[in-house]
């Protein structure tokens, strides 16, 4: 019996990257709005005797500042995609990569001292957007890569 074929990663098209960027921008906009408009640490307090997990990120900056960072990244992405300004899209990914990495580190650190790392998923879930923004930022570069005429690359969206 022949073993199954080897796994191969998906080959993303330009349109796929655009959809991914729009999705990441939407998620960051929602989180940024949430952080900018309220103090989540008082909305639903932690269990008695347990410190809020947001203490780690609020020690670095207040929640509204994190909201502004996310909002700035979103603004750069929206303006860059709308006006087709490559450097703005790149800057938006850089800002959001660092904002999400900071949020992830701060939240994960807040759960490390809890039994069975209770609640660690809320911090670990922020690692994926940080990684995706990093990959998009790193691969696209500050200046666009010229692909005009390359085999298999469409001339425009």
Spatial gap, N to C terminus: 44 Å
- Fraction of residues in H or I helices: 55-70%
Helix/strand order, N-terminal first = HHHHHHH
**Mean of the pLDDT scores?**
83
- Strand tally is 0
Categorize the overall geometry.
flat
Keywords: Membrane, Transmembrane, Transmembrane helix
Transmembrane segments: 12-33, 53-79, 88-108, 120-138
Can you walk me through this structure?
The chain is mostly helical. It has one domain. It has 7 helices and no strands. Helix 1 runs antiparallel to helix 4 and helix 5 runs antiparallel to helix 7. The longest helix has 26 residues. The mean pLDDT is 83. Keywords: Membrane, Transmembrane, Transmembrane helix.
Strands, helices and their partners?
Layout: H1 14-37, H2 40-43, H3 55-60, H4 63-83, H5 86-111, H6 121-124, H7 127-140
Helix pairs in contact: 1-4, 4-5, 5-7
Sum this structure up briefly.
This protein has 157 residues and is mainly α. The protein is built from seven helices and no strands. 63% of the residues lie in helices and 0% in strands.
């Amino acid at each position: 019996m022949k073993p199954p074929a080897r796994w191969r990663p998906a080959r993303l098209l330009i349109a796929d990257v655009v959809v991914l960027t729009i999705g990441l921008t939407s998620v960051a906009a929602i989180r940024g709005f949430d952080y900018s408009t309220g103090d989540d640490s008082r909305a639903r307090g932690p269990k008695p005797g347990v410190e809020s997990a947001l203490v780690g990120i609020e020690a670095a900056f207040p929640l509204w500042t994190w909201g502004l960072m996310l909002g700035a990244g979103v603004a750069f992405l929206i303006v860059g995609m709308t006006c087709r300004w490559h450097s703005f899209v790149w800057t938006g990914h850089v800002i959001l990569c660092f904002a999400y990495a900071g949020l992830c580190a701060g939240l994960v650190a807040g759960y490390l001292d809890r039994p069975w790392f209770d609640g660690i998923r809320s911090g670990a879930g922020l690692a994926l957007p940080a990684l995706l923004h990093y990959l998009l930022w790193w691969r696209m570069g500050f200046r666009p890569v010229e692909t005009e005429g390359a085999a298999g690359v469409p001339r425009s969206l």
